[in-house]
Amino acid sequence: MGAALTRYRVIAWIVGVVLILLVVVGMPLKYGFDNPVVVETIGPAHGFLYMIYLVAAFDLSRRADWPLKRMLLVMLAGTMPFVSFYAERRVSSWLAAPRAERTPEPVAN
Amino acid sequence: MPTPGDAKPFRPRGTYDTVSESGVVPGTLDTMRWLWTPAWIARHVAMVVLVVGFLGLGWWQISRATAGNSLSWGYAVEWPVFAGFVVYVWWREVKLARRRAQGDAVADSAEVPAVEPAPADAAGSRPAVRRPVRVARVPAAAAGAEDADLAAYNRYLSWLNANPGARPGDYPG
């Protein structure tokens, strides 16, 4: 679980940063200044990285036994600039909280 | 001499697990009826709509790719993969729901005290074969690093025991 969470967090951070670059830098350059070079280079890269994000999110949801709705919400959160960082923090807090509470039971009295 | 294979069809109804199988005729689709509730029909329809839509988008990307947009070859591969993922998630939900229903049935029968299964024993001449009792417990982690490793391994073993048929890759730990 820990490794899957780390994988998810790394790719979520990368996808979030690239998405913000695309929206904050690439879009104004393309539509405001008629210079599509940033969108043309970062755009496909973001698409490919988002696929990795989907795989990591699915892997994590399978291991954490999430309901389908939560998995789809986490996947969709990766498509929204800035929201992806919030989603990453929420996911980390979900998975970090119950770990500490879990106390093992003695096997033989 | 009866073999296990031909003993099954001759078993009269009522001697085996009457709680969960009453009203179900073997060999028909009665056992699948829970997949035909409004919520499940909505899921089946959503699955079919998404798959058809995704395959259509893939076809559209193929037409774009043959028209000269080389990036569309990538999308033409991606959409069928999405369609396959939808089918996989749908199949997984069905499987999980079935397993959950079976798990509830097992939990229900486990809560009943051991006196209860006696009527089934008395009704048929077949001796009742009971499965071993499954104990959901986490082994105690003693002090020390190697004991923590041992406890983790024991936890893995108990998970394997609690999930027969599961592959090691499914282990959530």
Automatic annotation (TrEMBL), chain A:
Transmembrane residue ranges: 12-31, 37-58
Record-linked Pfam families: DUF3817
Keyword Ribosomal protein: no
DUF3817 domain location: 5-91
Keywords: Cell membrane, Membrane, Transmembrane, Transmembrane helix
Cellular component aspect of the GO annotation: plasma membrane
Topology in membrane: Multi-pass membrane protein
Localization terms from the record: Cell membrane
Residues annotated as signal peptide: none
Record has Cell membrane as a keyword: yes
NCBIfam families: integ_memb_HG
Name of the protein in question: DUF3817 domain-containing protein
Species of provenance: Micromonospora orduensis
Organism phylogeny: Bacteria, Bacillati, Actinomycetota, Actinomycetes, Micromonosporales
